[in-house]
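User: structure tokens for this one?
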Amino acid sequence: MKLDKQSQDKRVIATKKNLLQALITLLEEKSIEEVTVRELTQRAKVNRGTFYLHYVDKHDLLEKNIDALILELQDRGKAITKTVLSDAAETEFRQITVEAFTDIFSYIKENERFFSVLFNGRSSYSFPLKFNTYLRGRLEEQLRSKKTVIPYEHWITAVSFAYQGMIYSWVTNGMKDSPERMGEYGYYFISQSVVEITRGT
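Assistant:
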């Protein structure tokens, strides 16, 4: 029986999801270098031929999912950039920024296991760099039309690593604060960094 396109698409999505979940489980136990494609396919209940239809190797599986993760974060962060660049009143600025940060932290919470293995230092050397590049891109958009009281490059570097550190701390300490509370922290952080650094210029 030949499957229609919609059914095929659903099967592909399910296969990729199962492979990612298998990879996450294995990365909770060992480093990416110790993981084998055989282990992945056995855990995901997928044959090796199907695996190689979608991915070159285990690193390709990991990197493509990292890229998808960051693209989702970029999409959810657009509201923050738009608000910072606008002349929104403080009340509106706070509301939109808190909601957007809460949405970002909720997404991280929903993908807690994946973020945890990405931050554990055994999974991907590329993730910290890709994640920081994403953060720098967001900050560059926010300051594109603004003058800063300290050199632009120093500010971008310092704040992008500070954001990354805040998320790293939250994830590696068990996400004890709620996404809503982290949304508030994100607002305070951005109001003190982006707003204050441009004041008086």
